[in-house]
Amino acid sequence: xxxxxxxxxVRILVTGSADGLGRSAAESLLAAGHDVVVHARSQERxxxxxxxxTRGAELVVGDFSxxxxxxxxxxxxxxxxxxxxxxxxxxxxxSTAVMPVNVVAPYLLTALLDGPRRHVYLxxxxxxxxxxxxxxxxxxxxxxxxxxxxxxxxxxxxxxxxRLRPDLLSNSVDPGWVPTKMGGPGAPDDLALGHQTQxxxxxxxxxxxxxxxxxxxxxxxxxPHPAVNDVEFQDSLLxxxxxETGTPLQDSGR
Length: 254
Known about the structure:
Blueprint: E1 11-14, H1 20-31, E2 35-40, H2 43-46, H3 50-54, E3 58-61, H4 67-78, E4 85-88, H5 98-112, E5 118-122, H6 147-164, E6 169-173, H7 196-203, E7 215-217, E8 220-221, H8 231-245
Parallel strand pairs: 1-2, 1-4, 2-3, 4-5, 5-6, 6-7
Antiparallel strand pairs: 7-8
């Protein structure tokens, strides 16, 4: 079987890379010779990334439950070498941080970063259980948010970005229910496969990886929740996030 052609080294940000799937993706991309920027929510968490930094990874620190921290991280990244790709991996399963981290942060990072032409968003099979409604959503995280709702929203955002920004490649990935700290030790899916699709979408020259607007599971596209590709729902979501953050999504003339 012919191996997919890979790009020359590209510069890739992997958010939430102190452990779990983000850590695995960062390690694998580094081993493949790419320039990797790793992210941790605090300096204490960043200590776990020292082995990757020693191998050449760069580091950005910011608590993505705080929109101001996302803005500072974006400004720091924009001041450095341009990024080619972003794997929006940072996420939480429960707590008041669900909406700020899982939805608001990737929206803001996408809107604020200069340069990246590939965006990969971590979705979940749980997005099928999400409510296709924005009524009463607490974007600021004063109350605990629904994980399923958050994954539906970020998957719809990925599809909206693909529709509105044809100059970009935007895709979402279900990594499977894998045995990470979030997934738990009894998770049945293959941890090794859990990070490969997002790496492929962020770096490969395989024609399939150069498509946009897909919802992927182990390098195969799946049909997402019907609301994901509902233009009216997408637009309502974008308006809500713009209103919440005061930051519009840039158009393709950027």
